[in-house]
Design brief:
The N and C termini lie far apart (about 55 Å). It contains four helices and two strands. The chain is mainly α. The longest helix has 13 residues. Helix content is about 35%, strand content about 10%. α1 crosses α3. A two-stranded antiparallel ribbon has the order 1-2.
C-alpha cells in the first residue's frame, strides 16, 4: 500500500527532455511502452509529445547567446547614410548621457536615447534579427 501525504503535483518537463525521450522512443528497435515506463511517463503523453515534435510544435529552446559589450565614454560621430532609418538628429554632448548604442557584428549600429520604450526597442531588434 502506498500512502501519499500532501498534494501530488504534475511534473514539469523541459522541451529538451521531452525531445530526448521522444528520440529514444523512435530509435530502431526501441519499445515504445518500455521507454514510457522507464521515464515514468504515460504512453498517451509520450504519443502527444511525438505528435508535437513531428508537427514542429515541440522544438528545442534556443541556447543563450552572449555578445561582447564595450562601455565608451566618448561616442564617435554618427556615420552619414542615405536611408531614413539613420535620420537621427545630432545631439550635443550633454544630451548623449542617456544614450545607448548597440553595434551589431554586421556593422549595423542602433542608437537610442533613454526615452525609447522597451516594446519599441524589442520590435527594432526583432526586425534586425530577421
Amino acid at each position: 500500500m502506498e500512502i501519499i501525504s500532501g498534494v501530488e503535483r504534475r511534473r514539469q518537463w523541459r522541451a529538451a527532455d521531452k525531445l530526448r525521450i521522444v528520440a529514444e522512443a523512435e530509435r530502431p528497435g526501441a519499445c515504445f511502452v518500455e521507454v514510457a515506463r522507464r521515464h515514468e511517463v504515460s504512453r498517451s503523453v509520450l504519443w502527444a509529445w511525438r505528435k508535437q515534435a513531428r508537427q514542429g510544435v515541440l522544438v528545442a529552446e534556443p541556447a543563450a547567446m552572449f555578445l561582447p559589450l564595450q562601455v565608451a565614454t566618448d561616442l564617435p560621430a554618427p556615420i552619414a547614410r542615405d536611408d531614413a532609418a539613420s535620420a537621427v538628429p545630432p545631439t550635443s554632448g550633454s544630451a548623449s548621457i542617456g544614450r545607448i548604442e548597440i553595434a551589431l557584428p554586421d556593422g549595423t549600429v542602433i542608437r537610442v536615447d533613454e526615452a525609447i520604450g522597451a516594446a519599441a526597442l524589442r520590435r527594432v531588434v526583432t526586425v534586425l534579427r530577421g
